[in-house]
From TrEMBL:
Sample GO molecular function, one term: phosphate ion binding
GO CC annotations on file: ATP-binding cassette (ABC) transporter complex
Protein name: Phosphate-binding protein
Record keywords, A-Z: Phosphate transport, Transport
Family that this chain belongs to: Belongs to the PstS family.
Key word Transport present: yes
């Protein structure tokens, strides 16, 4: 009897020992399942400027792959509409190429923080094909347009591409006898504001007759919605010229003009010429919003801007505030690596530190 009892006890002990790993695995699965249920899935919605939209699309895709529990959607509806939606509280963040005014900020009871996230150039893209299927005229470094010439094109005073004032800056270029068709933005646009601020700074006539703004009464031309709409019309219309963010011209292989700067030099928009312009922009510590409407650098491209992400300072849903703050921190470090590839200018280390400091106030 003692022997049988001993054997039986040993067998029961062995069964318990063998079952321990199985029990441990089952407990691990249950614990993992419980942890997954605890993971906060956060959804954020933003809207605004079309200027940074291609870069934001890349950022949001890359970030979601690394953080599948955070879904961020962005709609490029124009700076004006984005700011208005932020004021109305229908989005979690907005984007604007002109930041936000003090008057607009006072309407946001939850507070607002303006964060420059990227920068780039606004270019004058053109189509000098005399017919839809004919080869376009495109000098290697872009058609040269003097300051007064591109102002007068937008004023409707220069109406043909073979005008003597265009020809004198482009010797050897066979300019077509083709009417100029100006294409502008129909939506409230930060891109329009930046361009018209520049035109107002260099032309008293433009300032008095048209002035600057997100939407202005254009003396001539036809309108398209967003950078996409202007780009499409320039592609389709022989003789067209329109203003778009550089990446839209680059992606669609549209030639862009070399513009005369304050020193009388004709500058093609490149990462180097745009970066030199940005070095002249000093961001104030209180709201990080600043512009340079007519840069003084001898090699500066003349139409450059930051683009701002606008967030609330307070988020009733703390998870949303935290998720947005983490995304911004990622975009300021990892996201900047995608900038040059897409035609944007990475933020300097100094600006990154300024933005990080301001972003820390989100949902603090």
């Amino acid at each position: 009897m003692e022997l049988k009892f001993c054997i039986s006890a040993q067998l029961q002990f062995k069964r318990r020992v063998c079952l321990l790993p199985v029990i441990a695995i089952l407990l691990s699965i249950v614990s993992c399942t419980a942890d997954n249920k605890k993971i906060n899935r956060v959804s954020l919605v933003g809207a605004g400027a079309s200027f940074p939209a291609p870069l934001y699309e890349r950022w949001l895709s890359d970030y979601n792959q690394q953080n599948p529990n955070v879904e961020i959607n962005y709609q490029a509806i124009g700076s004006s509409a984005g700011v208005q939606q932020l004021i109305e509280g229908t989005v979690d963040f907005a984007a604007s190429d002109v930041g936000i005014t003090n008057e607009q900020a006072t309407k946001i009871k939850r507070g607002v923080i303006a964060l420059p996230m990227t920068a780039g150039s606004i270019v004058l893209a053109y189509n000098l094909a005399s017919a839809p299927q004919s080869p376009p005229v495109n000098p290697p470094n872009g058609l040269k347009l003097s300051r007064q010439v591109y102002v007068d094109i937008f004023l409707g005073k220069i109406t043909n591409w073979n005008h003597p004032r265009i020809a004198v800056a482009n010797p050897g270029v066979n300019l077509p006898n083709l009417p100029i068709q100006v294409v502008y933005r129909t939506d409230g646009s930060g891109t329009t504001s930046v361009l018209t601020q520049h035109l107002s700074a260099i032309s008293p006539e433009w300032k008095s007759k048209v002035a600057a703004g997100k939407a202005v009464a254009w003396p001539v031309g036809i309108g398209g919605k967003g950078n996409e709409g202007v780009t499409a019309l320039v592609q389709q219309i022989p003789g067209a010229i329109g203003y778009v963010e550089y990446i839209y011209a680059k992606q669609n292989k549209l030639p862009v003009a070399a513009l005369e700067n304050k020193f009388g030099n004709y500058i093609t928009p490149t990462p180097e010429s745009v970066a030199q312009t940005l070095e002249l922009v000093k961001l104030p510590t209180d709201n990080l919003i600043a512009f340079i409407n007519d840069p003084t650098g001898s090699q500066s491209y003349p139409i450059v801007t930051y683009s701002w992400l606008l967030t609330y300072q307070q988020y009733p849903n703390l998870a949303k505030g935290e998720a947005l703050r983490k995304f911004i921190d990622w975009a300021l470090i990892e996201g900047q690596k995608s900038s040059l590839e897409l035609g944007y200018i990475p933020l300097s280390k100094k600006v990154v530190l300024q933005v990080q400091s301001a972003a820390n106030r989100i949902a603090e």
